[in-house]
Structure prediction request, 415 residues.
Amino acid sequence: MISKNDMAKLLDRRQPSFALEREFYTDPDIFRLDLEHIWYREWIFAGHLCELPKTGSYITLQIGEYPIMIVRDAKGTIRAMHNTCRHRGSKICKDAKGTSAKLVCPYHQWTYDLDGKLIFARQMGDNFDKTGYALAPVACEVVEGTIFICLAEHPSDFGRVRDQFAPYVLPHNLMDAKVAYENTIIEKGNWKLVWENNRECYHCAVNHPELCKSFPEAPTSLGVADGAIDDEVRELWSRCETAGLKAEFQIDPSGQFRATRVPLINGATSYTMDGLPAVSRAITDTRNVDNIGALLFYHYPSSFNHYLADYMVTFRITPISATETAVTTKWLVHKDAVEGVDYDKDRLTHVWIETNDQDRQIVEDNAAGVLSPAYRPGPYSEVHEGGVLQFVEWYASFIRPRLDGGSRAPILSVA
Prediction:
């Protein structure tokens, strides 16, 4: 069994600019410590406000051992609560999403109002006091149509995330969006392998032919690569910032979240096979800027997102076990866009469905190799894998002091 002290020693002996040791990707005890010290303490991307269109709308998700439900109550407030009945613990909402006038436990019909208050518990005796049995709340924040939750008893200040995220995403009008399509795939690999694969395009040219028709693979195109920035990036930033569209690369001092706008290649304006828009009814206020590229927003440990002029695609990473991770992708379009008229679902989703499946195979091949006792951490590419190194540095710097009972220590790397 690997203890907190053992994990701390593994982190302390890791070689700079090298991958993590095998146990970080395979060991159930380290996975448990990841959940305890990161996933149960940090803000997690949960979903979109447009998924809760009316009173009683709910969505559910699972974060480690915690089933969560997010509900729009009668006053329109978005509330997150633990999806476990205060009677004997049964799940209340069993579906991924739905609408319900009340929250009724299917086991013994204990009934809760949409704000979590217990309003009915049959045959519990005359002395039973319902007021002490409300559903346990979860911290919840909504910013520009995007929902974040935090399981911690005392969550960190969400203000830093809000202050950075809001001005970048505001023109994309998520408040006027709807989910046109979503899917979830299970990748047989540790959540950190999913992120490491995401944080570089070293693998893209060979593995992602569809994505590479529009997305730039050069690290200098993504905003930061040892201080080098392509002229095309600077030109895009200048055009967008002049028109009032946030575009320049910005990263929080902790390294946990970042935003930047990047130009697409080959004259593309969207992630489609021909580079042309997938949705004729655009959702973004482009401020009359010709080709705004793609806004990229990353937030560890749970989400990376791409915002285009015609649609948005968001990704939620959810750890299942030491060797399994769920990746949920949602394609958002204007709420009034009509399938078959304003967009074709297959054309809208094709590039990222293919890319996600390719990434799944990459992660699973990577995980299978890392499982070998012969695996030894290798060095990251100085040219292409600065983003991977930044993620690993973030992970280590966040979790290491917590293993000693301390708080996170900020890092300043901007790779």
Notes: Residues 44-150 form a domain with the Rieske Iron-sulfur Protein fold (CATH 2.102.10.10). DSSP finds nine helices and 17 strands in the chain.
